[in-house]
Automatic annotation (TrEMBL):
The keyword Zinc does not apply. This is DUF4231 domain-containing protein. Keywords: Membrane, Transmembrane, Transmembrane helix. Residues 11-163, 167-288 form the SMODS and SLOG-associating 2TM effector domain. The chain crosses the membrane at residues 28-47, 59-77, 190-209. Coiled coil: none annotated. It holds the Pfam family SLATT_1.
Length: 294
């Protein structure tokens, strides 16, 4: 029977950190998007109030601005952004360690099952200890799931050629496809938001020129300016262009590593190969994380 490995086959710490990271990422972007939308609506109501002079619009605008202030304070205090990246760092570290263990790569090449299992579990404890800020955020799943699943044991028990073929298909190929797909997605999104910014700036310029011709007409130039600033803030938060370049570079690096495979004659060579691959997989995330916390 062909062995398949899915997310739930990795250690409970990986699953918990991964879910926590995804949850906090969603909270962060929902917070940013809500802030920008409310800011734009408040600016629009302020513009409209200058025309119709309705006191209630001033009250609504004030409430909306208060809401945007509350969102800023919430993002500052709860720090979903930090938890998102710390969780991702833990998840990726655990996943890399898991693949090394399954492939019998250094430092898990020993045949002594008891010793190598203990070593792996101690490494997971170290990863968690180094990220104490996540404790209480990743839930209880890390403590109730087995650190080593039956699937992981099955893969480790394969002979070297079978492990190599499994790693090539399930790890290298999957990672190359994932990074390639993400690079294309972020490139498209970056281009989309770029043209939205161009459109809003062009509209603002047109309205300014119209205002010269018709000085008595109040054009929503300030509202358009807020909209353009909001789009720029969103672009800076999502960082599509940087992610596209980073993912594309990693995808090409993975393809080159895969092309270097000629033959693996012993466990030592295989271990070195696994380590090189895992370093390539984690390099993009490590560099991106470092840029985020600068």
């Amino acid at each position: 029977m062909e062995i398949e490995i899915i997310e739930k086959d990795f250690p409970g710490l990986y699953q918990s950190a991964d879910q926590s990271s995804i949850k906090e990422q969603q909270k962060y972007f929902i917070g940013i998007a809500t802030y920008l939308v409310l800011l734009f609506i408040a600016a629009s109501l302020t513009y409209y109030d200058d025309i119709v002079h309705e006191p209630v619009l001033k009250i609504v605008s004030a409430i909306l601005f208060l809401a945007t202030l509350s969102i800023i304070i919430w993002l500052r205090v709860s720090k979903p952004h930090d938890i998102w990246y710390n969780g991702r760092a833990v998840a990726e570290s655990v996943k890399t360690r898991s693949w090394r263990w399954m492939m019998k790569a250094h430092p898990y090449e020993l045949e002594d099952n008891t010793g190598v299992i203990k070593h792996f579990i101690n490494d997971l404890k170290t990863i968690l200890t180094q990220n104490e800020s996540l404790i209480g955020k990743i839930g209880l799943q890390a403590s109730v799931e087995e650190p080593i699943s039956n699937t992981m044991i099955q893969i480790r028990n394969l002979d070297r050629n079978e492990r190599f073929e499994f790693y090539r298909l399930k790890r290298i190929t999957n990672q190359a496809l994932w990074y390639s797909k993400k690079a294309k997605f972020n490139k498209r999104q970056g281009a989309l938001w770029f043209w939205v910014t161009v459109l809003l700036h062009s509209l603002a310029i047109i309205l300014l020129l119209c205002n010269i011709q018709h000085p008595n007409i109040k054009f929503p130039i300030d509202v358009i300016a807020v909209g353009a600033s909001s789009v720029l803030t969103w672009i800076q938060a999502k960082k599509h262009n940087e992610l596209s370049s980073s993912y594309s570079l990693t995808a090409h690096e993975i393809v080159l590593i895969r092309a270097e495979i000629v033959s693996i004659d012993n466990e030592s060579d295989f271990s070195d190969f696994i380590i090189n691959c895992e370093n390539a997989f984690s390099r993009e995330h490590t560099q991106w994380f470092a840029r985020k916390i600068e």
